[in-house]
Amino acid sequence: MRVPTTQDDAALDAALIKRWMRGDQRAATEIVNRHAPALARFAASSGERDGVDELVQDTFVRAFNALDAFRADSSLRTWLFTILRRLVLDRQRAERRHGGMVELAEDHAVQGYNALDALVADETAARVRQAVQRLSTMQRDVFVLRVTEGLAYADIARTLDSTEGACRVHYHNAMRAVKEFLNDA
Amino acid sequence: MMRDCENGQIRDQLPALVHGTLGAAEGHAVAAHVAQCNDCQAEVTLLHRVRASLDAPHIDTAHIVAILPLPSEVMARTAHVRQVRQVRQVRQVRRWRMAAAAAIILAAVVSLASLRQLFDGGSAAGRSASAMAARRSEGQVMPSIVPDESVPVALLAPALVSASPVTIGAARHLSDAQLRLLLKEMDGLKALPCADPEAPHLALVQTDSSEDRP
Hints:
The structure holds two protein chains of two kinds. Chain A folds into two domains: 1-103, Rna Polymerase Sigma Factor, Chain: A; 112-185, Arc Repressor Mutant, subunit A, CATH 1.10.10. Chain A contains nine helices and no strands. Chain A has helices spanning 6-21, 25-45, 52-65, 76-97, 106-117, 123-133, 137-147, 153-160, 164-184. Chain A starts with 5 loop residues before the first helix and ends with a helix. Helices cover 62% and strands 2% of the residues of chain B. Chains A and B meet through helix 1, helix 2, helix 3, helix 6 and helix 7 of A and helix 1, helix 3, helix 4 and helix 5 of B.
């Protein structure tokens, strides 16, 4: 069986965009179904678990409003991640300005997931989430995009407005930190 | 106890191996290394575990699709934006052209004015020079306004000067003799190239006019 490659994904996205531009609404449904879970996972890992629905919606609305200007310099998913990340940062900035959100200390982050852990049967999965949650924002974003979404360093760098080298370093540091946390646990 | 494999290049490729996005040759090479490396096997297991642990929250995709804009709306908006941008560009070009034309006209006016001043100044100087030459040839003496030092200025008795000095404005009250004296004084004056000439030390004294009257 042939494994689908990123080129296949890009070609499929391009075809779907063309169909949508011609007025085919089913193409929009396919695009949303293809990318919504990954966006939701990324939003949740960014600490925005409560507003994930809204963030993903806003991401798609913004993307579709500018879809005819999408030049396919990067993949559609990378572009969507970029929009989502900006929305997350905007929201965090606004919450900080209004005093609605306090920067989470490491212990608080772990406690937040502890509450969730009670509902999670798999203790190992909970520990993994704790380990990921303890990472710095940049390390976590790189790690999640690399491990759960399988993005190349070039795409991660474009999404996070960074460089490939810096992303590679963040990934390996994050992996080491996760391993250390799991070894100690 | 998980440890890092010493082969950093292979470790770098493990997430791509898990996602199946490596090319055929590269994929085989990485898979062959993982098959005989315990550290990499542990890391691949961890990667699978992380992927499974970071589950996606449920998203109502039907609702998202329902609130998406229609392609015709997006195209119309884009066309409008493009049109507005074009109009702005045209206006900007027109403004630049107007500014350039105004600058050229201003430069032309300034150069014309300066040229005119140059020519007019030259001809006026020529005219005044020729007039002076004509006067000289007619034997006229040019008036001088600075006193000749060889001629004594204070012709009148100092006592009289201090007693009742009069101003030039009062010259009409002078007698004929006094006027003649004054004119003689003035003939002895020389012109000096001085922008703010010092006032001549002249003092007119009103004397008893009955002496000169017949």
